[in-house]
C-alpha cells in the first residue's frame, strides 16, 4: 500500500514528503487559478460566430462587398446576372430583394444548382416598393455595398477596379452612371441629362449625382437612410422613383462634397431587351424624367437647401483595357 | 467778434455754453481715442503689403499657383513658353530659375515688352544645378506650385483642370507624366517605362511616380526638401538627374500613399525640336535611364526602405474636350 515513498529513509519522512508535495501542488493550482483570473476577458460585443474566426471576419468586412440586387418581374434576367455576379472578385454575399409579392423565390432552384461561390439570400418583401433595397439588412457584414439594377451587367474588370476606387473614396458613391441637376434663374431645379445645358463652370460638363443602380457605397449610409424624414419615404413611395436621388442628397449633405465619384465603365450593358417577361423597366414611363425633376425640387424643400455639388472628375483604369491608354504624343 | 452765441440771453451764459461745448467736444475726443485703443491690433506676422489687402492675399494663396520654370540653354523656348503660361487662369506669379551661369537674364527685354498679366521673377543662379528649382524661394506666396520643364507646353484647359484636381488632392503630386519602378527578385529596383514589365497587380498597369517637370504640388514640399539628408543632394548633383524621383520618395514617405495622381493631358507638347540652341535636353544622354534606376536604388538605401506605392487611377475631365466622352452604349 505504500508507494515508492516508502523507499525513502523512514516512513515518517515519506509521509511528510507526501504532504509537502501535495501542499506544493495545491498551492501551484491556486496560483494558476489566480493567474487565469488576471487574463483579459474576451469582450462580448460581437456576433458569437466572430469568436471562432475573428481575423477573417474583420478582413472580409473591409476587403469585400455585398451585392444588393432588387428584382421585379424579371427573374430570367436576375438568374442570368446572378451567374455572372456570383463570381466577381471580392464579393462576400448577395442579397436579392424580392419584390415579386406573393410569388415564390427561386431559392429552391438556386440551391439545387449549388454549390455556389458565395451565399445568396432572398429577402421576400411584403409590398412592392422601390425603397425596399434601402433597408438596413441584418445580413450585411461588409462595409461596402455594391448595388445593381436587375437588368444591368457590368464586367468583372470594371467592378474590381471600381471597388478599389471606392476603397480610396469610402464616403462617396463610386459608380458608373453620372447624372446632373440644373439650377434655373427661377430657382426651380431640373434633372438633366448631358445633352442639355452645361452648368456653366467653364470647359466641359459636370455631374452632381451618381446613380446607385450601378455603384459602390458605404453600408453606413443604409443606416443613415433609416433616419430620413418621413417626407422622403412618402416621396419615393408616391413616385416609385427617386430613391437614388434621395441617397445622393443624403451623401452630399453628410460629406459637404460631391456625392459621387464617376468611374467610366469599359463594359456595361443593359439587358432589358433580353427579358422574356415583357417588362421593360420604370425608366420607360413617360413621366419618368419629369418625376425626377419633381423629386429634386421636393428634396430641396425637405432638406431646406440644395446639398448636391458638381464634380468633373472622371476616373479610368491606367493601362486597361488598352495597355497604352495613358500615352500621349509628346 | 461774438458769433451767434451772443444772441443767447446774456453774454455770460454764452461764454459758459462755449466752455461747456468745448469740454463736451474734448471729452468726446478722449472717449473716441480710448475706444480706438480697444480695437484689436493687426497681427504683424504677414508681409507688410498684406495689411493693405489681407483678404485678396489669403484668397490668392489658396486659389492660385506659382509657376516655377528652370531654364538652361533654351532661352528661345523659355520666352515662347512664358508668353503661353503668363496667361494661364489662376496663375499668381512666375519664377524663372536661371541656370545660364554668367549670362544676363532677359529681364530687360521682358520689361520692355510689358505690361504682363503676372509678375515674373528671374532668379539668377551661381551654379548650374538640377536641384536649383527645388529651393524654398521667398518669392513664393501660394500654397500651390506648378513646375514645368522649359521645353514642355501644356494647354490652358489641361492646367486649369489639373489645378482643380490638385485642390482636391493637395498632398499629392498632380501631374501629366507618370512613371514606375519595378521590384525584381534580386531586390534590386529598376526604373521602368510602360512597355516593360507589369508590376503584377492584375489587370492593366500601375504607376508609382508622377514627374515634377509637368505637375502641381504643395509648396510645403519645397520646405521639406530642404531637410533632406545630404546624400540626397549629393546624388542629384552627381547625376544632374533624379531630383524628381527624390521628390516622389519624399512625398510618398510623407503621405504613406502613392505620391502622385495622374491627370491624362489632352494637349501636351515637347518643344525640344523647336529650339535654335541645338541643346536637346538631359534625357537624351545615353545613361539617362540607367542613372534613374541607379537613383531609385540609392534613394532606397538613403531612405532605408522603398516608400513608393503604386496607383492605377487615371483622371480625365468629364465632358471635355469631347462633350460625350463619358457616354457608354448601354
From TrEMBL, chains A, B:
Catalysis performed (reactions): 3-O-(beta-D-GlcA-(1->3)-beta-D-Gal-(1->3)-beta-D-Gal-(1->4)-beta-D-Xyl)-L-seryl-[protein] + UDP-N-acetyl-alpha-D-glucosamine = 3-O-(alpha-D-GlcNAc-(1->4)-beta-D-GlcA-(1->3)-beta-D-Gal-(1->3)-beta-D-Gal-(1->4)-beta-D-Xyl)-L-seryl-[protein] + UDP + H(+)
Functional description taken from the UniProt entry: Glycosyltransferase required for the biosynthesis of heparan-sulfate and responsible for the alternating addition of beta-1-4-linked glucuronic acid (GlcA) and alpha-1-4-linked N-acetylglucosamine (GlcNAc) units to nascent heparan sulfate chains.
Signal peptide stretch: none
Enzyme Commission designation: 2.4.1.223
The UniProt record lists the keyword Transmembrane helix: yes
TM region(s), chain numbering: 20-42
Span of domain Glycosyl transferase: 65-320
One Gene Ontology term, aspect cellular component: endoplasmic reticulum membrane
Cellular location(s): Endoplasmic reticulum membrane
Name of the protein in question: Exostosin-like 2
The protein's required cofactors: Mn(2+)
UniProt lineage: Eukaryota, Metazoa, Chordata, Craniata, Vertebrata
Similarity section: Belongs to the glycosyltransferase 47 family.
Coiled-coil intervals: none
Membrane topology, from the record: Single-pass type II membrane protein
Amino acid at each position: 500500500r505504500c508507494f515508492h515513498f516508502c523507499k525513502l529513509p523512514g516512513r515518517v519522512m515519506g509521509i511528510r514528503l507526501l504532504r509537502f508535495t501535495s501542499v506544493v501542488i495545491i498551492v501551484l493550482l491556486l496560483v494558476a487559478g489566480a493567474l487565469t483570473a488576471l487574463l483579459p476577458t474576451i469582450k462580448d460585443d460581437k456576433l458569437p460566430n466572430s469568436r471562432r474566426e475573428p481575423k477573417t471576419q474583420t478582413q472580409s468586412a473591409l476587403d469585400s462587398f455585398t451585392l444588393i440586387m432588387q428584382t421585379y418581374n424579371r427573374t430570367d434576367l436576375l438568374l442570368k446576372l446572378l451567374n455572372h455576379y456570383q463570381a466577381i472578385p471580392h464579393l462576400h454575399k448577395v442579397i436579392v430583394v424580392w419584390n415579386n409579392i406573393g410569388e415564390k423565390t427561386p431559392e429552391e432552384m438556386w440551391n439545387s444548382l449549388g454549390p455556389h461561390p458565395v451565399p445568396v439570400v432572398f429577402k421576400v418583401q411584403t409590398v412592392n416598393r422601390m425603397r425596399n433595397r434601402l433597408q438596413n439588412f441584418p445580413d450585411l457584414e461588409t462595409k461596402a455595398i455594391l448595388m445593381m439594377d436587375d437588368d444591368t451587367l457590368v464586367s468583372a474588370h470594371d467592378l474590381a477596379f471600381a471597388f478599389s476606387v471606392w476603397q480610396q473614396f469610402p464616403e462617396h458613391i463610386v459608380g458608373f452612371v453620372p447624372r446632373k441637376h440644373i439650377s434655373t434663374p427661377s430657382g426651380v431645379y431640373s434633372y438633366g441629362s448631358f445633352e442639355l445645358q452645361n452648368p456653366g463652370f467653364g470647359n466641359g460638363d459636370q455631374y452632381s449625382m451618381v446613380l446607385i443602380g450601378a455603384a459602390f457605397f458605404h453600408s453606413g449610409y443604409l443606416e443613415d437612410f433609416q433616419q430620413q424624414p418621413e417626407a422622403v419615404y412618402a416621396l419615393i413611395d408616391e413616385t416609385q422613383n427617386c430613391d437614388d436621388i434621395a441617397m445622393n442628397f443624403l451623401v452630399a449633405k453628410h460629406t459637404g462634397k460631391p456625392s459621387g465619384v464617376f468611374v467610366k465603365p469599359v463594359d456595361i450593358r443593359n439587358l432589358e431587351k433580353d427579358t422574356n417577361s415583357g417588362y421593360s423597366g420604370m425608366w420607360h414611363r413617360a413621366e419618368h424624367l419629369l418625376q425626377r425633376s419633381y423629386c429634386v425640387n421636393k428634396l430641396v424643400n425637405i432638406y431646406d437647401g440644395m446639398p448636391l455639388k458638381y464634380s468633373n472628375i472622371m476616373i479610368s483604369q491606367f493601362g486597361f483595357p488598352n495597355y497604352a491608354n495613358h500615352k500621349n504624343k509628346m
